Amino acid sequence: MANRSSNTAAVPEAKGALDRFKMEVAGELGVPLTDGYNGNLTSRQNGSVGGYMVKKMIEAQERQMSGQNGMSGQSGMGGSQM
């Protein structure tokens, strides 16, 4: 396996949507995430954002796989489903 940074997007075209999704989740959790440097945040704060993002993406994928359409009443990655 090639040595790859974990900080690069597997699908570069999705970077903007993922960044918006990250900011949305941070807002929902009350984490003061900003564009740029966020070294003032704790590991717990950053981890909660990432963990909740993964949870929401898995839920969206499960809904899609089960045949349920849309994410009515819930926010998601810019209105798109994974």
UniProtKB/TrEMBL annotation:
Example of a GO MF term: double-stranded DNA binding
InterPro entries xrefs: SASP_alpha/beta-type (IPR001448), SASP_alpha/beta-type_CS (IPR018126), SASP_DNA-binding (IPR050847), SASP_sf_alpha/beta (IPR038300)
Assigned keywords, A-Z: DNA-binding, Sporulation
Pfam families linked to this entry: SASP (PF00269)
Gene3D superfamilies noted in UniProt: Small, acid-soluble spore protein, alpha/beta type-like
Biased composition (Gly residues): 73-82
Membrane-spanning parts: none
A single BP term in Gene Ontology: sporulation resulting in formation of a cellular spore
Entry annotated with the keyword DNA-binding: yes
Protein purpose: SASP are bound to spore DNA. They are double-stranded DNA-binding proteins that cause DNA to change to an a-like conformation. They protect the DNA backbone from chemical and enzymatic cleavage and are thus involved in dormant spore's high resistance to UV light.
Family: Belongs to the alpha/beta-type SASP family.
Protein name: Alpha/beta-type small acid-soluble spore protein
Organism: Fusicatenibacter faecihominis
Organism ancestry: Bacteria, Bacillati, Bacillota, Clostridia, Lachnospirales
